[in-house]
Amino acid sequence: MKEICIDGQKIGNGASTYVIAEISANHNQDIQEAIDLVYLAKECGADAVKIQTYTPDTMTIDCSNEHFRIGEGTIWEGKNLYELYGEAYTPWEWTGRLLEEAKKAGITLFSSPFDITAVDCLEQHNMPAYKIASFELVDHPLIARIARTGKPVIMSTGMGSLREICEAVEVLEKNGCKEYALLKCTSSYPAPVDEANLARMKHMEEAFGVAVGLSDHTMGSTVPAIAVGLGAAIVEKHFTKSRDIEGPDSAFSMEPNEFSEMVKAVRIAEQAVGTVSYELTEKEKNSTVFRRSIFVVEDVAAGDLLTEENTRIIRPGYGLAPRYYDQVLGRKVNADVKRGTPLEWGILA
């Protein structure tokens, strides 16, 4: 598997799971709220915090006809796209300040740009990496521009067919991207657990030979922990101070205590996965004494034969291994042996 490195931290090939806190619109356009979320993300165990870089005008046009009104099936039903993005966007002039605060907090900050001008802006701040959102998977000119920065890229694949993912990966590689990872994502908000389809991660890992992970919109920690068990090298979750604070994304975001618990669950999951090994652990070595072995279970005198009556395979494991049982039956002993003696080769005549 190709690994990537963001801000000095390796991702993939057995490295610790890279946990991203997505601030999205949860700052409610208050820079202090955004700064607080950066520090909170660090306290909660995140490796990185992510923002989004767009404006209403870089996303869409100010138009009120039916094409620009959000239909049924989302938490934004009935809203006008331009108005929604006006509520949700992160002011571009915050970028430098947020990077400074992230550095002070000891956490990596990077962004999802949603058009080429956003990439140009972010490049002025020397972003350490870029995230391509699921909805931009089909925006090849944007993907090409991001690839040409030479920075590591994390690309979400929500709604993407295998062909669309292949095409996006081809654009990345043709434009010089050497380090990228792919995230499984279900692009509904919140996402039902039965639509998580985590099995696709392993297929993407095998198909593309890169680190894979999960951009998760389900509620709770269960799905991220399972994803790590299935090989996720990255976990991304939306992050808010409180879901009681109204905002475009708060309803499906994690609060700090929940995020901390998720990070703990992720770390436990990655410990449980471990590595392929058939060596005994130290704890297992202590348990081997409770295996079965061959014992003399009746007093026998020198010269007596060992039989099924005077020997048995029982616990504990101090005698010969059970695989030798047929070989010792019918053999004579060379000395008197008391009941409860573990059978050893030296006892046999």
Automatic annotation (TrEMBL):
Domain AFP-like: from-to ranges: 293-349
Keywords: Transferase
CDD domains, per the entry: SAF_NeuB_like
InterPro entries assigned to the protein according to its UniProt record, in alphabetical order: AFP_Neu5c_C_sf, Aldolase_TIM, PseI-like, PseI/NeuA/B-like_N, Pseudaminic_synth_PseI, SAF, SAF_AFP_Neu5Ac, SAF_PseI/NeuA/NeuB
Molecular-function annotations in GO: transferase activity
EC number: 2.5.1.97
Pfam family, one: SAF
NCBIfam families documented for this protein: PseI
Record's protein name: Pseudaminic acid synthase
Organism: Rubritalea tangerina
